[in-house]
Specification:
Layout: H1 13-36, E1 44-50, H2 54-62, H3 64-71, E2 73-79, E3 85-91, H4 93-100, H5 104-112, H6 116-125, E4 127-130, E5 133-136, E6 140-146, E7 154-158, E8 163-167, H7 172-193, E9 202-209, H8 217-224, H9 226-233, E10 238-239, E11 249-256, E12 264-271, E13 274-276, H10 278-284, H11 289-300, H12 304-312, E14 315-320, E15 323-328, E16 333-335
Parallel strand pairs: 1-2, 9-10
Antiparallel strand pairs: 1-8, 3-6, 4-5, 7-8, 9-12, 11-12, 13-16, 14-15
Helix pairs in contact: 1-2, 1-3, 7-8, 7-9
Length: 345
């Protein structure tokens, strides 16, 4: 493989600056999540990016979708007024204990009384002399607080130029989004374990198995957040109630998603197979159960390739006890549930 040589003249400095600014915002957002001990699997409603520079704000806006994706936040807001931001020096006692000894208390009092200008200078230079002791950025960090901001669900992180305020308030909608992402991740993990390729002809099915302490939330998520789950998977996830029993099982697994005694997620992956419109098929055979079984079994004898060919020609004929039944594609059956028009009704 030929690897091209780096050409510094091809680098667009404006794009490089914008990406650097975007990365700085993402890093501050991750810092907020770490402080609140809330992982990236949990969606957040809003975050506010505060910076006085109009150019900075415009650069981040251009790349906002990346910020939203990396931090899993639904809405990004911007503010330019940072006058109500208060800086505070926070000493690392574990690191400074041996270094300062009996001067520790004196240095701590002095650190608490540092001016905003002192702390800004410290952030810019990475060091500051306090009571004759040089304190580095490894020995003291700078915390930020917005005056009048008392909401415990808000977390503030920042550097010398930018502040990020993230809202960790949770509600039912965010909970459902988090669970839908969990479902998607578990299904993706199953596919990987089964060593499936993107274009392998399989169908995936899911069901909520009620537990003694179950909340019913999982079933609600499977129904109401189906589109969100499928967007994450980039393929359909069908309700297990639609399975017709003849599909060949590739892998099946039960996941504990609500803790001990809670509802469980049952996921099955099957080889794609004929999918029947049971009402239309029953009407075709005149409610003759044996004829219906014969039609089903005959359709299952074909390979997917051959069955698809028959579908393109309209369907297939089934002869049973002197009668001929014409199974029409998209009326009586399809290859897998994805093409079944009767499911859309």
């Amino acid at each position: 493989v030929r690897i091209p040589e780096f050409d510094p003249e091809a680098v667009d400095p404006e794009i490089l600056t914008a990406v650097t600014r975007m990365v700085s915002v993402i890093e501050l957002g991750r810092m907020c999540r770490e402080r609140k001990k809330v992982g990236l699997k949990t969606p957040l409603r809003t975050m506010t990016i505060m910076n006085k520079s109009e150019g900075f704000v415009n650069d981040v806006k251009r790349l906002q979708t990346y910020v939203e994706s990396e931090l899993y936040v639904l809405d990004v807001k911007y503010a330019s007024n940072t006058d109500n931001v208060q800086l505070k020096g926070v000493l690392n006692f574990k690191v400074l204990g041996k270094k300062l000894g009996k001067d520790m208390k004196t240095v701590q009092q002095a650190a608490n009384n540092l001016t905003q200008e002192d702390l800004t200078k410290f952030e810019e230079e990475g060091k500051l002399t306090i009571c004759g002791h040089e304190i580095t950025s490894e020995e003291m960090t700078v915390s930020r607080k917005l005056e009048g901001l008392e909401d415990p669900n808000l977390e503030v992180c920042g550097d010398s130029d930018t502040m990020v305020v993230m809202d960790f308030t949770q509600d039912e909608e965010l909970f459902a989004m988090a669970m839908s992402r969990t479902v998607g991740n578990l299904v993706q993990k199953m596919r990987k374990e089964a060593k499936l390729q993107q274009d392998d002809p399989v169908d995936m099915w899911a069901a909520a198995v009620a537990g003694k302490k179950g909340t019913g939330n999982l079933q609600k998520v499977l129904e109401e957040k189906k589109d969100l789950i499928e967007k994450h998977l980039r393929r359909p996830l069908w309700s297990s109630s639609l399975r017709q029993g003849h599909e060949l099982l590739v892998k099946e697994e039960t996941f504990d998603v609500e803790g001990e005694g809670g509802d469980k997620l049952l996921v099955a992956i099957t080889v794609r197979a004929p999918f029947f419109n049971e009402d239309a098929l029953r009407q075709l055979v005149g409610s003759d159960a044996n004829a219906e079984t014969a039609c089903r079994q005959y359709a299952q004898t074909f390979s997917l390739e051959k069955l698809s060919e028959l579908c393109s020609n309209g369907g297939l004929k089934v002869n049973y006890e002197g009668k001929t039944f014409q199974l029409e594609h998209k009326k009586h059956f399809t290859v897998g549930p994805a093409d079944a028009p009767w499911l859309a009704k």
